[in-house]
Amino acid sequence: MDQSTSLILFEHLRISLKALSKQQKNAFLSRLPSSYCSTRITPTCPQQIMVPMKPLPSATALRRYPISLSSLVARAGGTLLHKRAHHPGLTLSTHRSTASLSSSGSSTNTARISASSWEEQYHLGRSLSKSTVTAEQQKKWNQKVKKWKQEWDEVLPNQQEQVHYQGYEMDALEKIQKKSYEANLLLEIRDVRVPLSSHHPSFTRLARHRNHLICYTHADTIDAVTRDRVRLWTSKVWPDAKCLFIDTREMRKKEDVLPAFSFAYDRLLHNLDAAGGINAALTVGMPNVGKSSLLLNLLKHAKTQEAIPKSTKMRTSNKSKSLRNVKKPIGIQDVPGKTRDITEYLIRQKPRAYFLDVPGMSPPAFFLEENPQSWFALGACNLVLLSQELEEDIAVHTSFCDYVLYAMNRDRNFQYVNKLGLDGPTQDIQEALEKLCRKNQDKWSEERLQKGRCEMFLKFFNTGNFGPVILDDLNYGLNGRKL
């Protein structure tokens, strides 16, 4: 073997380290996450280290550990892979469905990802790793949108009609404050597409005196790069919090659902044990953010691991003094606004651990008044309950689409151009909507056609067809503070 260092990825991660010294080898191996792999020296080739993935790179395994294989290698190698000056011949080649990255010792370094790459199939958003925009188009369109508006200036509707608040919410908020003293962990559920807007201001106070774990749902709509951006932003705005990302899609194979939640279950228990004291997690979030989907699957996973009895143990606030057995968690329903009582569920028998399921809390009026763009972002993600008048207003739904278009242009995400068949990026939402529902434009009325176009546009966004889109501006934190 020459002086170059080569990395070959296939069923096992084979790392050929002949060019490295013993100290460098130890430094490399010390950075390999033990939870992902184990190491052994092959007797026939002492200069090669075989790092078998366990389990093998399957869809189930990679949802449990949602990071790309190339990210794993980069993190494991640390500075050894980062400082190419010491290893000019570093290459990363592929076999079958793995990612393909290569760098030569020459001045021109290239990176390529094959059409059937491992990342394209298995990272958070399976179809999001391959951009439909060429480098030349990206550069050209970046120059075009520079002159467009950089701030959202749409006016909110009548303040009394922005959100249709449920009657139980104010009473539930008071109960949450009292119940918080029984919990040593705050499990906050947010939508990853609106990491700031889906945060209720009251939850900031709850996180001050207890461990804070943020769970971002809808992670299937983003890719690994976007996930890392959200993680970095979270560390700046909430430096004491930890975060994880979970795919809460409903339409998935049954055998893929529970393994996808096993990592979240382990992280939850780990943070509960680390906090000490009462092992109870207060679970909070906005309506329809995916809280019930997460909790239901955590309970199912706990049963499959025999951590709790098959009959779910629960206790509803002000209705029972002790845990009682029920066949299914009747207090949790995967329907927005159905959770109305604070209910305690057992998630581990020994040592005992609980989570407290609380009603979803809509954003307060003052928060939307100070952050008007959040209302449009939440509306696009279907996270705000509208009054009947606003629900029937076509202009409101058009404004939701307009905000999605604005956010994509702001972040220079132009995948919508090819998806809609446009000649280039646009800031005119009507121009974009006119590309949809063309078959029915002679059959439907103008109002029905506009509504159908808005529904299809938002469906494309909510299913990841426009690529990884974050509606909140990650250049800003709480109270509009520039990061």
UniProtKB/TrEMBL annotation:
GO terms for cellular component: mitochondrion. One of its GO terms (biological process) is mitochondrial translation. The keyword DNA damage does not apply. InterPro entries: GTP-bd. Keywords: GTP-binding, Nucleotide-binding. Residues 283-337 form the G domain. Pfam families: MMR_HSR1. This is Ribosome biogenesis GTP-binding protein YlqF. It comes from the Eukaryota. One of its GO terms (molecular function) is GTPase activity. It comes from Nitzschia inconspicua.
